[in-house]
Write a sequence for this structure.
C-alpha cells in the first residue's frame, strides 16, 4: 500500500502536494514528447487524482484486481497524461513506461484500456460512460454488503451526456453511499465555456434533486479534498457528489483557464517555461 | 412457468426456457444476477425476481445505464445477465456494448429479447433486424441465436460458463422443438447439421431453422438433396462447416434479420474467401411494412415455400 500508516495530516497533505507536482511535470512531458494529449484537463484533474491515490483510496498495485480494493473510474478518459502518471507513481507499472505514451503499439493508448494496464477498471474515452459503470460496481458492493468504495471522476462538459443522468437517478434511488462522484468543474469544454454551450449551473442543485449529498470544494486544495473524500460514507444514506472547482491548465500561467489547452501541445519554449513554473 | 408447457400444441416460447435456466443457474451460482430496464415481464423474469429479489437490478427505462451497470457488476465479481428488448439493448446502448462490454472485454451476458420482427405490428422502431449486423463488428463478442427451447437452455448455460462477453438473441415467436440425436451437445462456435444433403445447403438460425428443415423435406421429395445447417453461433462462425457447405455447390442463408450484414453476410465473407459458389441471402430488405410477424415471414418469403423457391433458383445458378 502506498499510503503510509496513519500519517500526520499535515504530512499527508504535503505528500499529496509533492505527488501532484510530480504528476503535472511528468504528464506535461508525456504530452510534449507525444505531441498529443489533453494537458489542460490533466492539470485540472491532477489534485483530485493525487488526493485519491495518495490520501484516500485502499489499493494494492501488486494485486490490482483484489476484490476488496477501492475502485477508481476515470470517466474523463482523454486525460491519460495525469491518469497514467498517477498509476505509475502509485506503483501499477514502471514510471519508465510513461515514455511510451501514444507510441505505436504502446500499452499507453490515448484513452485507457484495462486489458493493457493494471489499475484501469473500465475502458473509457467516449464521455458519459464512467458514472454508469461505477454505478454498477457500487451496486455489486451494495449487494455483497462489501466495504470497498467506488470513486469516479468526470469532466463537467461531460455531464451534457444524458447517460450520466440515467445513472444519477438510479444511484439516488438505491441510496448508494459507497459511490462517490467527483466532477472536475473547470468550466471549459473542448470548444468553449460550459455555461456558453449547454449550461450546467446550478449544478449542485441538480445533484441534490437526484438524491445525492453534494459538497462543493476548491478542487486544487488538497486538505479540503482530503476532508470530503476520506470521510466515511457509512450512514450518509446517499451517494456523494463532490463538485471540485478547478481551472483548466492549473499550475502553468499561459495555460490557466485557457480553452486552447484542451488538447494543445507545447512548443519547446512553452515546455521549458512550464517546467520552470512547476516547482 | 415451465419450458415444458408449450404455448400452442407442440410449440414453445424460448423465453420460458431462458427463465427456467437462469433460475436454475442462479440457485447454483450466487454470482449470477439479472439486470433489467423495466423489462421484467417481457424477459419472463418474474420468477427470478420472486426467488432472488436482491439479485435483480432494475435501472428503469435507461438502456445505456442498463448495459454499463452490467459492466460494473462484472467488475464487482458478479456474472450479470442483462436482459431487455433486443432493439433497445443493442441500438440504444450500442456504444456501451462497444466500449463498456466488448472493448473492455468483461464477463457480461447480454440477452436480446423479442428480436427480429416479433413485435410485428408495432413496426420497425420495435423490430430488431439490425442487431446482428451491429454486434458482429465487435470481434470478441460471442453471438448466439438459439433455435428452440433445448438450444436456448444450452446457450444460456454455455454463456454462463464462458468467461467473457456474450450476446444471446432470443425470440418470443413460437417454435417447435427440433429433432436431434439424444447425445447432441451445444458448443459456442459449433454449427449443427440437422439434415444431411449433397446438392445444396441451407444455413439458418433462430426462428428460421425449423422452416429450413421443412423446406428441405419438400425439396427432398423432388429429388434435391438439401443439407440444413443450424448456425446458432454467428460469432465466431463455424468456418469449417461453411467451407464444407460450399462443396454442395450452392448455399442459401435464412435469418429473421436484415439481409444486410447478418448471418448471410457473415457466411458470404467466408464463402468468398474459400470456395465461391452461388449464394442467396434470405431475410428482410430493410424497414418493413405493418403486419404481424407471421404475415411478415410469409410476405418476405421466410417460410417453407419461399425457402424452397430460393433453393431451386440458387441451384439453377450452379456453374
Amino acid at each position: 500500500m502506498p499510503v503510509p500508516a496513519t500519517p500526520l495530516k499535515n504530512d499527508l497533505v504535503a505528500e499529496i502536494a509533492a505527488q501532484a507536482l510530480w504528476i503535472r511535470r511528468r504528464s506535461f512531458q508525456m504530452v510534449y514528447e507525444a505531441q498529443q494529449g489533453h494537458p489542460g484537463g490533466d492539470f485540472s484533474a491532477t489534485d483530485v487524482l493525487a488526493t485519491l491515490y495518495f490520501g484516500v483510496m485502499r489499493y494494492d498495485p501488486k494485486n490490482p484486481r483484489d476484490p476488496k480494493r477501492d475502485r477508481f473510474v476515470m470517466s474523463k478518459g482523454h486525460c491519460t497524461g495525469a491518469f497514467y502518471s498517477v498509476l505509475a507513481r502509485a506503483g501499477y507499472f514502471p514510471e519508465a513506461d510513461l515514455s511510451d505514451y501514444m507510441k505505436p503499439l504502446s500499452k499507453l493508448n490515448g484513452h485507457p484500456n484495462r486489458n493493457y494496464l493494471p489499475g484501469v477498471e473500465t475502458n473509457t474515452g467516449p464521455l458519459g460512460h464512467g458514472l454508469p459503470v461505477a454505478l454498477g460496481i457500487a451496486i455489486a458492493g451494495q449487494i455483497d454488503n462489501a466495504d470497498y468504495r467506488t470513486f469516479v471522476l468526470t469532466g463537467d462538459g461531460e455531464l451534457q451526456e444524458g447517460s450520466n443522468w440515467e445513472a444519477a437517478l438510479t444511484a439516488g434511488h438505491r441510496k448508494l453511499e459507497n459511490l462517490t462522484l467527483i466532477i472536475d468543474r473547470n468550466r471549459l469544454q473542448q470548444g468553449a465555456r460550459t455555461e456558453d454551450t449547454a449550461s450546467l449551473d446550478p449544478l449542485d442543485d441538480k445533484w441534490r434533486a437526484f438524491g445525492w449529498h453534494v459538497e462543493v470544494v476548491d478542487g486544487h486544495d488538497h486538505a479540503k479534498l482530503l476532508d470530503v473524500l476520506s470521510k466515511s460514507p457509512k450512514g450518509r444514506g446517499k451517494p456523494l457528489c463532490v463538485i471540485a472547482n478547478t481551472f483548466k491548465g492549473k499550475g502553468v500561467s499561459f495555460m490557466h483557464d485557457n480553452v486552447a489547452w484542451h488538447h494543445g501541445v507545447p512548443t519547446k519554449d512553452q515546455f521549458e517555461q512550464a517546467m520552470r513554473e512547476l516547482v | 412457468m415451465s419450458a415444458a408447457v408449450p404455448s400452442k400444441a407442440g410449440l414453445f416460447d424460448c423465453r420460458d426456457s431462458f427463465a427456467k435456466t437462469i433460475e436454475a443457474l442462479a440457485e447454483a451460482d450466487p454470482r449470477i444476477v439479472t439486470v433489467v430496464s423495466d423489462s421484467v415481464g417481457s424477459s419472463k423474469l418474474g420468477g427470478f425476481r420472486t426467488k432472488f429479489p436482491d439479485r435483480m437490478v432494475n435501472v428503469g427505462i435507461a438502456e445505456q445505464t442498463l448495459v454499463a451497470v452490467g459492466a460494473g457488476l462484472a467488475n464487482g465479481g458478479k456474472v450479470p445477465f442483462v436482459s431487455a428488448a433486443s432493439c433497445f439493448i443493442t441500438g440504444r446502448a450500442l456504444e456501451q456494448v462497444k466500449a463498456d462490454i466488448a472493448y473492455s472485454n468483461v464477463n457480461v451476458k447480454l440477452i436480446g429479447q423479442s428480436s427480429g420482427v416479433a413485435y410485428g405490428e408495432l413496426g420497425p422502431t420495435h423490430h430488431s433486424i439490425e442487431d446482428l449486423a451491429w454486434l458482429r463488428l465487435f470481434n470478441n463478442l460471442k453471438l448466439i441465436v438459439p433455435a428452440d427451447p433445448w438450444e436456448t437452455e444450452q446457450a444460456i448455460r454455455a454463456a454462463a460458463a464462458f468467461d467473457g462477453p456474450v450476446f444471446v438473441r432470443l425470440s418470443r415467436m413460437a417454435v417447435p422443438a427440433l429433432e436431434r440425436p439424444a447425445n447432441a451437445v451445444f458448443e459456442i462456435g459449433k454449427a449443427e447439421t440437422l439434415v444431411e444433403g449433397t446438392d445444396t445447403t441451407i444455413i439458418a438460425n433462430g426462428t428460421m431453422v425449423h422452416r429450413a428443415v421443412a423446406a428441405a423435406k419438400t425439396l427432398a421429395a423432388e429429388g434435391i438433396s438439401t443439407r440444413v445447417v443450424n448456425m446458432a453461433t454467428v460469432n465466431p462462425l463455424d468456418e469449417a462447416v461453411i467451407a464444407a457447405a460450399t462443396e454442395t455447390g450452392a448455399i442459401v442463408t435464412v435469418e429473421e434479420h436484415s439481409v444486410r450484414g447478418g448471418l448471410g453476410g457473415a457466411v458470404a465473407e467466408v464463402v468468398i474467401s474459400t470456395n465461391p459458389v452461388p449464394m442467396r441471402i434470405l431475410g428482410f430488405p430493410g424497414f418493413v411494412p405493418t403486419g404481424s410477424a407471421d404475415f411478415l415471414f410469409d410476405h418476405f418469403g421466410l417460410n417453407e415455400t419461399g425457402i424452397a423457391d430460393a433453393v431451386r433458383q440458387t441451384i439453377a445458378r450452379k456453374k
User: Anything to note?
Assistant: Chain B touches chain A at residues 33, 54-55, 57, 59-60, 62, 64-65, 68-78, 80, 95-96, 99-100, 103-106 (CB under 8 Å). Chain B has two domains: 11-176, 192-316. The radius of gyration of chain B is 19 Å. Confidence is low (pLDDT under 50) at residues 1-6 of chain B.
